[in-house]
Design a protein that fits this description.
About 25% of the residues lie in helices and about 30% in strands. The chain has helices spanning about 20-30, 35-45, 95-110, 125-130; strands spanning about 5-10, 55-60, 65-75, 80-90, 115-120, 135-140, 140-145. The two termini are about 15 Å apart.
């Protein structure tokens, strides 16, 4: 919940959410280009988040698209998943939207992967570390979470 506002998460399957272009424009204005890549890969059918353990979620607050985030198979380790294309609109940051979106994706990863990795921008390091991710520096990654050692939702994890 965001104050009196309800956060609703929906899987993205057939098409990107209706307000995706507005979300994408906000991301571009902040210098983030990864939602461009999401749109291009989606349109080309190159990445549809439909492999084992993969998922793309859209977060809505009072009907407005507040953010997106996904999981794909980690290219450097097929036993892991990678958090990708994670973006929350500035107006919805620090309201619980990002946390709820990330926790839903992590919950989805349980049973399908040994670990979840991310390549995060430095400004978001505190967010990911508060969820239980550990900083790593390898293979283009910044953080990883061993799902076998961390129970999502536990006092020692998200």
């Amino acid at each position: 919940m965001v104050g009196a506002k309800k956060i609703r998460l929906e899987p993205v399957a057939d098409e990107l959410p209706a307000d995706f272009e507005e979300l994408r424009a906000e991301a571009r204005a902040e210098g983030h280009r990864f939602l461009n890549r999401l749109a291009e890969d989606w349109a080309a059918g190159a990445m549809r988040f439909d492999g084992r353990g993969e998922r793309l979620l859209a977060a809505f607050v009072d009907g407005e698209l507040a953010g997106v985030g996904g999981l794909t198979i980690e290219p450097t380790d097929p036993t892991a998943l990678r958090m990708r294309r994670f973006y929350v609109r500035p107006a919805h940051r620090r309201t619980g939207v990002g946390r709820q979106l990330a926790l839903a994706l992590l919950d989805n990863a349980k049973g399908d992967a040994k670990a979840v990795t991310i390549n995060a921008q430095s400004a978001s390091f505190p967010f990911w570390e508060a969820l239980g991710f550990i900083r790593v520096t390898r293979d283009g990654l910044t953080h990883a979470m061993d799902l076998r050692a961390t129970s999502v939702g536990s006092p020692n994890g998200p």
